[in-house]
Design the sequence.
């Protein structure tokens, strides 16, 4: 209501203004020929006519525009006054063409938006993959500027990977050989890949790595960038060295019993053992060495099975008290032979754990057997067990009054084939027993193993086994 009133008042004002303006114009044009009142009257009349004509035109074109906006078709043309139709037709044609173009642009805009989103998510995915990759990846553009430097490349090249993009290659890659390979690969303008082994860095900190460099070509087959993938060879070289050390130590340990067996057999074959007593001695040596060989092979197989995760574990509820008593019974004869006292001091508490009974027995037997071997005659060996309710585990200790272990050897005593040099004469061994114990306790049972020792006073080996719940046995693959 208020709007209609305002519009009517505005129209009336515009109409009056147009009439007065028309009157003044006519008065001015004919000012010299007529008296001024007639002139003003004629002017007002002419102005009124002009205003009416303008209003009619405005109304018709307004109606036409309204029609056009709602339909944009030939109907709009038909609704226009006859004299306005040719112009209306042209206008409608233009507008229709513009509408078609507008639709096309909108479709294209949507298409570009979708493509931009796809490209953005692809870029984010590529960045995420590059970030978690172990391999170092470096992308360099044709102007020898770094475009991509992932976290691994940052670590290997000792640079800030996030600040690297946009910086010159020479700032990021200090190694001249790697820079040369990247530049040469780009200069070659081919899709071929170059590979080289490099030492990044200097001295003891130098890292051996393998570089693979290839080019990225643009749509016109021109080189637009080079990609360098750097593979750190440190771990592989360590593993290769460990393998060769293992093979050489294992062969050495296997050769020792084999040599004594061969010597005995040769003497028996050559008839050098004249009397029955000597022959009995030789048979005894062959038997001992055969057992040692078998133990060595068994230990090696068990360790490698545990390391490979394919050992068969028969996990049940195990009373460690009974296991310790059984181990004491097994080792008792050896201890008595050396005049040693061996006894178990078990806490009268629940010593049940979740584990593999045979494997846990093997740990205790190994520790007790070592205690007997490295304790002089008349020594004392005690095996203890108690539960630690706070840590939810059972704690087992094997204490002897033997040779003790030199402090320098303590940290390495659980390594494969490690033996205290001076004790090799004291007793025969494989150097695998403690390593197997550690694997059984830590890898298989999730416990801990350790030792305290004072040279010349004795040692106390200990291990813990979580009480845990009984899990389903894991079957070997
Ligand atoms: P081995 O078959 O040689 O006994 P182990 O792995 O069981 O192999 O032990 C590794 C080495 O640790 C032994 O050779 C010995 O030098 C040392 N050792 C183990 N137990 C004791 C101990 N109770 N007292 C002194 N030295 C020990």
Sequence:
């Amino acid at each position: 209501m208020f709007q209609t009133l305002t519009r009517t008042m505005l129209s009336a004002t515009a109409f009056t203004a147009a009439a007065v303006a028309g009157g003044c114009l006519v008065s001015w044009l004919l000012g010299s020929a007529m008296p001024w009142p007639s002139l003003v009257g004629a002017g007002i009349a002419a102005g009124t006519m002009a205003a009416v004509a303008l209003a009619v035109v405005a109304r018709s074109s307004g109606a036409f525009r309204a029609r056009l906006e709602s339909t944009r078709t030939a109907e709009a043309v038909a609704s226009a006054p006859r004299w306005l139709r040719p112009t209306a037709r042209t206008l409608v044609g233009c507008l229709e063409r513009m509408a078609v173009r507008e639709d096309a642009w909108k479709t294209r805009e949507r298409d570009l938006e979708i493509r931009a989103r796809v490209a953005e998510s692809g870029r984010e995915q590529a960045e995420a993959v590059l970030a978690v990759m172990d391999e170092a990846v470096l992308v360099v553009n044709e102007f020898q500027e770094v475009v991509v430097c992932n976290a691994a490349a940052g670590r290997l090249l000792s640079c800030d990977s996030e600040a690297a993009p946009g910086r010159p290659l020479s700032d990021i890659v200090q190694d001249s050989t790697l820079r040369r390979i990247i530049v040469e690969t780009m200069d070659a303008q081919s899709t071929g890949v170059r590979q080289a082994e490099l030492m990044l860095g200097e001295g003891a900190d130098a890292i051996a790595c393998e570089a693979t460099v290839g080019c990225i070509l643009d749509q016109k087959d021109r080189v637009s960038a080079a990609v360098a993938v750097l593979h750190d060879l440190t771990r592989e070289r360590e593993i290769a060295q460990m393998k060769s050390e293992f093979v050489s130590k294992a062969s050495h340990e296997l050769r020792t019993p084999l040599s004594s067996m061969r010597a005995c057999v040769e003497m028996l074959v050559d008839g050098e053992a004249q009397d029955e007593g000597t022959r009995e001695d030789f048979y005894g040596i062959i038997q001992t060495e055969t057992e040692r060989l078998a133990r060595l092979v068994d230990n090696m197989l068990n360790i490698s099975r545990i390391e490979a995760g394919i050992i068969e574990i028969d996990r049940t509820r195990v009373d460690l008290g009974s296991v310790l008593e059984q181990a004491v019974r097994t080792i008792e004869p050896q201890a008595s032979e050396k005049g040693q006292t061996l006894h178990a001091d078990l806490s009268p508490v629940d010593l049940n754990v979740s584990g593999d009974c045979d494997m846990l027995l093997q740990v205790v037997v190994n520790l007790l057997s070592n205690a007997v071997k490295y304790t002089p005659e008349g020594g004392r060996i005690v095996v203890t067990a108690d539960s630690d309710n706070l840590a939810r585990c059972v704690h087992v200790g094997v204490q002897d009054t033997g040779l003790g272990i030199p402090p320098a050897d303590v940290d390495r005593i659980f390594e494969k084939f490690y033996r205290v040099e001076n004790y090799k004469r004291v007793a025969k061994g494989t150097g695998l027993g403690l390593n197997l114990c550690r694997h059984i306790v830590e890898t298989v049972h999730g416990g801990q193993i350790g030792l305290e020792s004072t040279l010349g006073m004795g040692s106390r080996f200990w291990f813990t086994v979580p009480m845990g719940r009984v899990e389903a046995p894991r079957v070997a693959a």
